[in-house]
Amino acid sequence: xxxxxxxxxxxxxxxxxxxxxxxxxxxxxxxxxxxxxxxxxxxxxxxxxxxxxxxxxxxxxxxxxxxxxxxxxxxxxxxxxxxxxxxxxxxxxxxxxxxxxxxxxxxxxxxxxxxxxxxxxxxxxxxxxxxxxxxxxxxxxxxxxxxxxxxxxxxxxxxxxxxxxxxxxxxxxxxxxxxxxxxxxxxxxxxxxxxxxxxxxxxxxxxxxxxxxxxxxxxxxxxxxxxxxxxxxxxxxxxxxxxxxxxxxxxxxxxxxxxxxxxxxxxxxxxxxxxxxxxxxxxxxxxxxxxxxxxxxxxxxxxxxxxxxxxxxxxxxxxxxxxxxxxxx
Length: 329
Fold this sequence. Notes:
Helices cover 56% and strands 4% of the residues. The chain is mainly alpha-helical. It has a three-stranded antiparallel sheet with strand order 1-2-3. Helix 1 runs antiparallel to helix 2 (32-50). The radius of gyration is 26 Å and the shape is globular.
């Protein structure tokens, strides 16, 4: 939201907007980041309408259109798309609650965003990163267990950091986590992850606790819960050792988990369940990553692909000869 003009106070919070934010936070269970994004977008929209003497609940289709024709349409396409979504959800809520009879945002079109395929590590790169974890002490045991779960179970960072000791079943090889919208799911855990986690629970975590009791699974050096910043720090340290700093993030391990499962023959529906995606359309993004990987392998290894790139001596002559031959029988 642009700052108010000098000497002019910011408009007071709109009651309809505040009720909407309470609804998505407490009734829909949306994440704090999502609620904050709605708050920013609607504050910007409310300020625009305040200059016109209009409340959001009374805005017209033209008000909405002129918002996006002006400051609401500034910035990257992703920002405009997010503002569009915010207004759509807000006005759909007002209609459902009987505040309005019509939806002035119904005709909004979301800007088309270029599809960006997520960065994926190869199996060899994942192994190289994990090999740099020195699991000799409690923090090293924690680091290895955390990375093994990120990759071995495809967890989001928030899901990993939200795990409690009772959420893991080492004997059954299962992890229970809470994802977006407070939806709970159970994910299988591979042998490597179970071994690393078992060692951390028996040795490292007990040492970090120093006789205290905590429910959180992953702890910092002082025995408190591991934070997102702490996870970022440990990952940067390990990626630096592997000479891969800047090439991966914690979320990259989740992308790699999904891609490697699909490349190994897992069905899309099963991967969707393990990732906790609400729609299989989201999971389908990883099929494009897998196809792109296969394409790269093909271009690097298939002799006919190399000929098209001109890397094989005599390719032009061979191709010309092929053109004069009849079709093979």
